[in-house]
Amino acid sequence: MERAAIVGIGQTKAAGRFKEFNYPELVYPAVVAALEDAGITIDDIDNVITTSNDFWDGRTIASMATGDVSGCWDRNISCVEGDGAFGAFYGMCRCLSGHYGTTLVTAYSKGSESISAYITNAAFDPIYVRSLGLDMVSACALQARRYMDRHNISEEQCAVVSSKNHRNALGNPNAHLHLDLSVEDVMGSRMICDPLKLYDCSPVSDGAVAVVIANEDRARKIGGKPAWIKGVSFCMDNYLLGDRDLAEYSALEKAAKKAYAAAGISDPRKEIDVAEVYDAFSYQELMWTEGLGLCEQGGGGKLAESGATGKTGDIPVNPSGGLLASHPVIAAGLIRIAEAVRQIRGEAGDMQVDKDVRTALAHGVNGVAGQSHCVWILGKE
Amino acid sequence: MSNVWESVEPRVYESQIKVPYAWQAGETASRFLLTLKNEKKFLGKKCPKCAKVLMPPRKVCPYCFVETGDWVDVSDEGVIETFTVARRDTGIMPLKPPFVYAVIRLDGADTGLVHLLGEIEPGAVRAGMRVKAVFAEERTGKILDVEHFKPV
C-alpha cells in the first residue's frame, strides 16, 4: 500500500473561554500554524476535511461555517461529524485514493458557548432513553462502576491517572488547566456522578487543531520531519448502552489489533514508545490501556499505580496531560495525533518523554462511553 | 497578546435553537410502549439468529443485522448491572438530584434497560440487587410510564 505521513501540525491553546475569536475564527490560527509547520502554503493543499458537530456549534452543516478559515474556497471539502481522529482517517484515505496529494484536516469546538449536558443528552435515542436525562457524564459513570466492579479497580487507582495527567499538563503550553493535583486532591474533589468526582472528569474547553496529511510523494517533496502513518483502524460497538457490556472494550481491541497488524507490532507494550489516549475520564485511561493491550485485562489500575504510564515510565501515557487537562470536544482525538507527532519529532519540550520515540500511538473516541475507537500508529520511518 | 478589549467591548449573542420534532416510534417501539401503558408489561423481541431477547425491542438485531422475530414476555423484575448517583443538576433531569440511574437486566431479557431507581437510599444501591418496576398512575405510552424500579 502507498504510504502517507503527517507533515504539519498546528493548534491553538485550549481555554475555558475564548472571547477574542468567534468559533470559525478560532480555526484560522490552527490552520496557519499547521501550514507554517509543514513549510507550505494553502496553495499546496489539495482538499480539506473539517471535523465538527452541529449541536456543539449551534448550526446545521457546521462545516460550511468553517470552510473559509480552513482555506476551502474553490477546493474540495468534506466534513466528518465526530472526533478529529476519525476526520484524519478520512483525510488519509483521500490522500491514498490517488486523487489528492495533500489533505488539511481541522477539528475544533467552543464548549464554552453552550451546555454540554444538553448536547450530549441529545446523543441518546429519543424514544427509549433521552427523557431519562442521561448525559455523557452520567452514562460514563455507569460504565466506570461496571468496569471498576468487574476488575476491583479502586477510586484511588483512577485518581492516580488524574494526578499524573494534570501534572504532565504543567509542561504543556497548550493545556487548558495547569493544576498541580495530588491523588489526595483528586480523591477529595466533590462527587459529580458516583464514582466520578470532579477531577475524574475532563473539563469542557475551547480549542482548535489542524494537521496536514500527505501521500509519500508529496511528503518527500515537502521534506521536514514527516511522521509516517504505520497503521490505523477504527471499530464501533453497539449504540444502546444496555446492548453493551460496559466493562468491556471489544471495539478498541479490534481496532488496535488491526492497526498493530498493519504496523507490524506484535508486542505493543514493548514496541510502542509513547501513547496519547482519549482519557475523557480518569477510569477511561485505565480501560483503554487494557484495550490497547498495554497490560492484561483488568490490569489498568495496577499499571498506572506502578508508574509505568508516567512520563519516565516504560510506557508513558498522555505526557501532554490528555483530555483531563484539555478537552475541546471533537478536537481532542486530533490533538492526540498532533501530540504523538511532536513526540516522534522530539519537539515536545517539557512533555518530551525520556527515550528515543520511534513509534507513537494516538487514540480517538466517538460516541457515548467509548462506543467507537480509532487507533493510530505513527513512526519515524 | 495585547489587550484587545481596550478599544472594543466583547459582544455576546445569546440564542437557542428550538426545533419541534414528531418522531414516529415505529411499529416495534409502538407495540412495546402501548403494552407498557395498557398492560404494565414489558415485551422483548427475539433475534432468530443469535436467539437474544432484545428489551427494549428493536426491529433489527444490533448484533446480527437481521430482522428480529417473535415477541417475548419479559419480567418486570430483574438485576442491577451498574448504577450511578447523579448529584449535579444539569437542568434536563426528570428528578431532583441526588437520584440513581441504573442499567437493569430484566429476567428473560438478554440486554439491559437504562432507567431510574427509587424507594432506596442512593448510598445503599449495589450492582446485583434485584429490583421491580413501579408503574406511573397516569401512563401515556412513554418509557417514563415506568416511574422507576424499586428494590424487591
How are the SSEs ordered, and which strands pair?
The complex is a heterodimer of chains A (381) and B (152).
Chain A: E1 4-11, H1 23-38, E2 47-52, H2 54-57, H3 63-66, E3 76-81, H4 84-96, E4 102-110, H5 116-121, H6 136-151, H7 155-169, H8 183-188, E5 191-193, E6 196-197, E7 206-215, H9 216-222, E8 227-236, H10 250-263, H11 268-271, E9 274-276, H12 282-291, H13 300-305, H14 322-325, H15 332-345, E10 359-366, E11 372-379
Parallel strand pairs in A: 2-3, 2-4, 9-10
Antiparallel strand pairs in A: 1-7, 1-8, 4-7, 5-6, 8-11, 10-11
Chain B: H1 26-39, E1 42-46, E2 53-54, E3 71-74, E4 77-86, E5 99-106, E6 113-117, E7 130-135, E8 146-151
Antiparallel strand pairs in B: 1-2, 1-3, 4-5, 4-7, 5-6, 7-8
Kindly describe this structure.
The complex is a heterodimer of chains A (381) and B (152). Chain A has 381 residues and is α/β, with parallel strands linked by helices. Chain A has helices at residues 23-38, 54-57, 63-66, 84-96, 116-121, 136-151, 155-169, 183-188, 216-222, 250-263, 268-271, 282-291, 300-305, 322-325, 332-345; strands at residues 4-11, 47-52, 76-81, 102-110, 191-193, 196-197, 206-215, 227-236, 274-276, 359-366, 372-379. Chain A has a domain at 4-115 and 205-222: Thiolase/Chalcone synthase (Peroxisomal Thiolase, Chain A, domain 1). In chain A, the strands form two sheets. Chain A has a nine-stranded mixed β-sheet. In chain A, strand 5 and strand 6 (196-197) form a beta hairpin. The longest helix of chain A has 16 residues, at 23-38. The mean pLDDT of chain A is 96. Chain B has 152 residues and is mainly β. Chain B has one domain. Chain B has one helix and eight strands; from the N terminus they run H-E-E-E-E-E-E-E-E. In chain B, the strands form two sheets. In chain B, strands 6-5-4-7-8 form a five-stranded antiparallel β-sheet, with no helix packed on it. The N and C termini of chain B lie far apart (62 Å). The mean pLDDT of chain B is 96. The chains are: A alpha/beta (381), B mainly beta (152). Chains A and B meet through helix 5, helix 6 and strand 5 of A and strand 4, strand 5 and strand 6 of B.
